[in-house]
């Protein structure tokens, strides 16, 4: 993260622009980062880690500096005091491979509306290859004496590099102008130069020309000038620029070669067929060391003996064939040199014949093509190496030809070549010569557009995307084969579908872990709430027993309340232990032969108090046949009890619940149906998950830890069965079903007890007493908690009345006209917040003191109670001292007070 040095573009002034810039930079740069503290990283930078290999701990603060080249760590980076534009710097950064890479670094501040800096946004681009290319170009220009020049047509001024001046024989520190350039040209070359330049200016095109120039020392030299035209916005040529090369040595070599060829560098020979004598020039003698003077003739056999044994018979046959067929003679063969090596040559000739057709002589020439053969052999070996590499590599390789419609739009491509991995990576067999649409008619258009871009621009591209119709993901590198106008592409690609699936699985796993963490957090909060609920009546009971020790009836009633609440806590703890045992596979079923009807009777009996408390109608339907099971009766009763309890809790008062058990093939089907709150479609799949509560997301939470249904499913599965749920939707009830495997029928020896249809109706009883101080209404769905709190308040001298839900509280308040209302938040139906708002809208609740009484005690819970109209917030279990202190302060102005 450098301090920049050179300005570039405008600074974004909003976080939206910064986010857009971040996305754009991510698509074009190797590293993109942001930080709120200049010169330091204050957060993890994933792309920095991926490029440098530093860990998050290593890069934070100024730890990123350790990844810089040691010589670059103390460069004098200076940041202007009022930075308003993008700045750049360049340094060497250690890559994860261990090599140092040249990085072009850009950074800018993101400004707030008031001009202050919100954060710094920066990017690193790897320019190593660019710098290496520039260095090679500099070396090439220096080694090849390549100069650069520019002419301003408006002013007539000229500038040139030191190498350009050297091409004209001028020292580096000398001044150069256009008159000096043209003055150095020979007359004929000057006119040629002027004609070429004028033509280039007229067409605004490029030009090149070879010129002879006279140096100041009088020597004659050749210079190659290549240039291009620069135009203004109106299209007028305003300047010329280009390069120059000193061709003197090259021209001299060309002349030498021309003279060499003219002097007979190509060997000549003549075979006098009648006399069998071959005469040759000196070059021929050099190639065929026959140990004879060039002027001395030798028989043909002497020359044939020097030819490579593998070529000799073929050459002799070709000579005979040419003589007999009266056709030109041409042969390629190898000739033995004096150093034991062989040189490659081409011999050409045409025979001369007598009038009767007798061959007289065969004159010809000999070309030494050894160097050409070496180049061809090297090229062939190179092609073989690359071909072998392509054949063996795991990546698919192919050559394709782009196909276009009449409007010039890319619509298809044809496979021309492919390596063995092509079929494995693409899944296409026998594709050579065929088009992709012949295999995949609905192939995605973005592939054609991508390849069309490469064909037209000539710029290679690396691309990763999905081929939807092929049901595969590909990583592709495509480059144009040939120059402009070519429609051929070379494509390297790999099928990365498995990698993409793995990435998706990892993302899904991360989402699942996040969801489990969220549920765990909710579960812990719920557990705290559920444990606090029983503690409230237990604490109140202890206070009552202390104050009413001389009232045996009161003490007995309170003891019963405390016993029920302790049993509730034991039930919660047992559920937790069951979940732990099942999760660890430590639960042991006590299997025995039993009848399902007996288990149902036990479960119904256990759940009846809760069903009656909700004034629900319960209907039980049992199959007439016996339903024998190999099961743990206690655990199955627990399964059915959980389902019945859930139905009772999540069904509004006076609802309908039905329990059916019947034989379905070799299974017993148990269904518990209710007219309750129902389950939204999106929650159906998670109902049986751990820590999930049916009505929690609909404002209908009824207590519990969210593990009951999870126990239902797991216990059913331990019995070889299954559990399922169905619901038409929220507010439309639900049906839970359990399937269990039946035993083979045996003669019945006993009849299961009948379970009658039960109608349960409970009435609310009000406990009233004259109170010397305040009229207090206690609203809590936990009957024991409400009754014990009312009893405590009675003993404190207050007049009390009790309600167990929001509707009842709203009905009682206008008649009772309370001064204070202790209101539970987690009520069924209307929650405590909704009841508080409704009370504030009626005369009886306008001036009443509202006290939130709940097991939820976090700061946001207190804020919600204040917003809903509560004056005070008590966290269960509230002690007697806190209640007394609260009531003692009611004459003071209303302010939200927290009591523990």
Written account of the structure:
- This protein has 900 residues and is of the alpha+beta class.
- The chain is 38% helix and 26% strand.
- It has 26 helices and 35 strands.
- The strands form 7 sheets. Strands 11, 12, 13, 14, 15 and 16 form a 6-stranded antiparallel β-sheet that branches. It has a 6-stranded mixed β-sheet with strand order 27-28-26-25-23-29, covered by helices on one side. A 6-stranded parallel β-sheet has the order 31-30-32-33-34-35, with helices on both faces.
- Residues 1-10, 697-701, 748-772 and 892-900 have low confidence and may be disordered.
* Sheet/helix structural class: alpha+beta
Q: Mind describing the biggest β-sheet?
A: 6 strands, antiparallel
Task: Name the poorly predicted regions.
Answer: 1-10, 697-701, 748-772, 892-900
Global shape: elongated
- The total count of helices amounts to 26
What is the gyration radius calculated from CA atoms?
Answer: 49 Å
Give the integer mean of the pLDDT values: 81
> How far apart are the termini?
51 Å
How many strands appear in the DSSP assignment?
Answer: 35
Residues in helix, %: 25-40%
Q: Beta-strand percentage?
A: 25-35%
């Amino acid at each position: 993260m450098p301090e920049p040095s050179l300005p570039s573009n405008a600074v974004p002034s909003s976080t939206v622009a910064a986010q857009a810039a971040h996305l754009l930079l991510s698509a074009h740069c190797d590293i993109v980062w942001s930080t709120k503290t200049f010169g330091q990283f204050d957060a993890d930078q994933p792309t920095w880690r991926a490029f440098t290999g530093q860990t998050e701990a290593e890069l934070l603060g100024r730890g990123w500096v350790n990844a810089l080249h040691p010589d670059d760590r103390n460069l004098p980076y200076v940041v202007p005091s009022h930075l308003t534009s993008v700045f750049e710097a360049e340094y060497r950064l250690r890559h994860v491979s261990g090599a140092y890479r040249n990085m072009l670094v850009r950074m800018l501040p993101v400004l707030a509306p008031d001009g202050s800096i919100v954060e710094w946004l920066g990017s690193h681009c790897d320019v190593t290859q660019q710098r290496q290319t520039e260095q090679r170009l500099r070396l090439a220009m220096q080694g090849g004496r390549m100069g650069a020049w520019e002419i301003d047509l408006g002013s007539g001024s000229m500038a040139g590099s030191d190498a350009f001046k050297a091409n004209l024989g001028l020292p580096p520190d000398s001044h150069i102008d256009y008159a000096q350039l043209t003055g150095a040209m020979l007359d004929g070359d000057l006119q040629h130069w002027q004609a070429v330049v004028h033509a280039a200016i007229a067409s605004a095109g490029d030009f090149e020309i070879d010129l002879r120039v006279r140096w100041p020392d009088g020597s004659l030299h050749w210079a190659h000038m290549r240039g291009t035209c620069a135009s203004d916005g109106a299209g007028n040529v305003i300047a010329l620029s280009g390069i120059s090369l000193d061709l003197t040595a090259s021209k001299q070599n060309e002349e030498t070669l021309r003279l060499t060829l003219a002097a007979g560098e190509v060997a000549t020979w003549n075979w006098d067929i009648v006399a069998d004598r071959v005469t040759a020039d000196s070059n021929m003698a050099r190639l065929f060391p026959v140990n004879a003077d060039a002027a001395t003739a030798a028989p043909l056999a002497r020359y044939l003996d020097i030819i490579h044994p593998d070529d000799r018979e073929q050459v002799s046959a070709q000579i005979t064939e040419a003589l007999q067929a009266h056709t030109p003679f041409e042969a390629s063969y190898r000739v033995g040199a004096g150093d034991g090596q062989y040189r490659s040559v081409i011999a050409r000739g045409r025979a001369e014949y007598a009038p009767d057709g007798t061959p007289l002589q065969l004159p010809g020439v000999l070309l030494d093509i050894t160097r050409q053969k070496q180049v061809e052999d090297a090229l062939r070996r190179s092609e073989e190496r690359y071909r072998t590499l392509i054949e063996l590599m795991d990546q698919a390789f192919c050559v394709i030809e782009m196909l276009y419609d009449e409007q010039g739009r890319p619509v298809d491509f044809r496979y021309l070549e492919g390596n063995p991995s092509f079929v494995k990576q693409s899944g296409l067999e026998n594709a050579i010569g065929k088009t992709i649409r012949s295999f995949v008619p609905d192939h995605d258009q973005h592939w054609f557009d991508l390849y069309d871009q490469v064909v037209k621009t000539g710029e290679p591209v690396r691309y990763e995307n999905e081929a939807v119709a092929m049901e595969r993901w590909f990583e592709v590198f495509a480059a144009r084969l040939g120059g402009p106008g070519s429609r051929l592409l070379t494509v390297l690609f790999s099928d990365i579908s498995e990698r993409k699936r793995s990435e998706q699985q990892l993302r899904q796993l991360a989402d699942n872990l996040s969801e489990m963490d969220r549920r765990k957090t909710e579960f812990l909060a719920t557990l705290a709430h559920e444990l606090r609920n029983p503690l409230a009546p237990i604490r109140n009971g202890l206070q009552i027993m202390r104050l009413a020790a001389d009232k045996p009836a009161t003490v007995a009633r309170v003891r019963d309340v405390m016993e029920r609440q302790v049993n509730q806590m034991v039930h919660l703890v047992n559920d937790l232990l069951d979940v732990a045992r099942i999760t660890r596979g430590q639960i042991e079923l006590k299997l025995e032969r039993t009848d399902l009807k007996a288990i149902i009777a036990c479960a119904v009996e256990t759940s009846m108090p809760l069903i009656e408390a909700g004034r629900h109608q319960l209907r039980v339907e049992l199959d007439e046949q016996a339903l024998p099971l190999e099961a743990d009766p206690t655990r199955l009763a627990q399964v059915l009890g959980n389902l019945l309890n859930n139905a009772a809790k999540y069904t509004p008062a006076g609802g309908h619940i039905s329990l059916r058990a019947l034989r379905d093939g070799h299974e017993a089907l148990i269904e518990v149906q209710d007219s309750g709150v129902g389950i939204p479609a999106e929650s159906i799949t998670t109902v049986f998950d751990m820590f999930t509560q049916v009505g929690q997301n609909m404002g209908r939470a009824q207590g519990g830890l969210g593990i009951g249904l999870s126990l239902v499913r797991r216990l059913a599965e331990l019995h070889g069965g299954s559990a399922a749920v169905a619901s038409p939707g929220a507010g439309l009830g639900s049906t839970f079903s359990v399937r269990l495997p039946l035993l083979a029928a045996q003669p019945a020896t006993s009849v299961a007890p009948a379970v009658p249809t039960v109608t349960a109706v409970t009435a609310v009883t009000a406990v009233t007493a004259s109170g010397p101080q305040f009229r207090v209404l206690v609203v809590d769905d936990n009957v024991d908690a409400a009754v014990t709190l009312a009893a405590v308040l009675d003993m404190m001298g207050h007049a009390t009345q009790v309600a167990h839900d929001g509707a009842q509280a709203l009905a009682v308040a206008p008649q009772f006209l309370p001064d204070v209302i202790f209101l539970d938040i987690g009520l069924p139906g209307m929650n405590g917040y909704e009841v508080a708002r409704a009370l504030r809208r009626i005369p009886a609740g306008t001036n009443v003191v509202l006290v939130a009484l709940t097991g939820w005690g976090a700061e946001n819970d207190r804020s919600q109670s204040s917003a809903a109209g509560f004056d005070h917030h008590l966290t269960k279990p509230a002690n007697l001292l806190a209640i007394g202190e609260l009531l003692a302060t009611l004459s003071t102005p209303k302010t939200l007070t927290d009591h523990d």
